[in-house]
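Morning!

This is the sequence you dropped in the shared folder:
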Amino acid sequence: MEILLEEFYKTDLIIEKFHYRKVFIDEKSYQMNGISQSGKTKLLKKYLLSLKKSSYLYIDCADIRVQPTELNLHLAKFCNHNKIDVLVLDNYTPEIEFVNVSQLLISSQIHYEIDFLETLWLYPLDYEEFLAYEHKYDSSALNHFFQLGGYPSMQKINADERNIYIQKTLKYTLSEMEFDILCFCAKVMAQKISAFNIYERLKNSRKISKDKLYKSYESLIAKNYIHQLAKVEHPKATKKIYLCDISLKSALTTDKHFGRLFENMIFLELLKSDTACFYEDGIDFYLPKRDEVLLGMPFADERTLFKKLESIEAFIFTYQIKRVTAITMNQEGSFTHPFSKVVMIPFDIWALGDA
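The structure's back. Tokens below.
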């Protein structure tokens, strides 16, 4: 193990061109959580490359040569001998014991309750981060975002290989049960669904344990492959589910529904902005702190929007909604309404905060 640690210590870290992310590492100790291929390793290496090489040690715990028991016997002594200030345990597993260093950085898909480590959640690229990869900021950028989604690695994958790449990545990092659940969720994204509903559907095609399915479903939620949205003032009601990235829809199913894909994309922007939101029947997103309703209406016009407003007028009045925002592909405008300000705004403008 000492020889392997020496190899890690002397190996030069290399990353290709680094693009802007909204999450960054400073001098604190962190655990970085996020799904596979969200960019955790690249962010860690970018930070280390800003330091003096002799001051840090980077260990990828997914390396099969790293045996936790052996590592625990030698790591503290190695760090003391080489005066390591910053220790990075990428793809960390809890079998590995921490050692006393000035700064500890770990990464994992799973979040661990570790008091002395602050948590950084790294999600796939949002639209603003995606634009850092684009050469021009016009309508083609949004179309490109729909095609690639938020996985940073998609930028370097040929178009005909992207779906297979995502499938292989997910099969490698998830259990068989988790993968099957995720495939089903891709079919019903942006709809109300429960673990029991999934069990009822999947048991018809395979022999499954309800307890194992429930645990796998909760695991996908804990690792942020699946997100849930609660109903307004009904926390026990069936939640709507969204995928961690819109690219999973085309990679895991042949079902097409652009409206739900569009809604999922809006949800992910709200998620990354840490905006509290809920759904209601007929309403995609209710933002209580803003007294605002968001409607995903990619191809809306004035007539369809007014018809929609009529159907949700009781909710607007009851909750004193000050603003109704219809997020579209390219339609823009504002309208008068007895209770609220009503606007149509293209997704790219809304997502960049220029509304």
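Headline: The mean pLDDT is 94.

More detail when I'm at my desk.
O.
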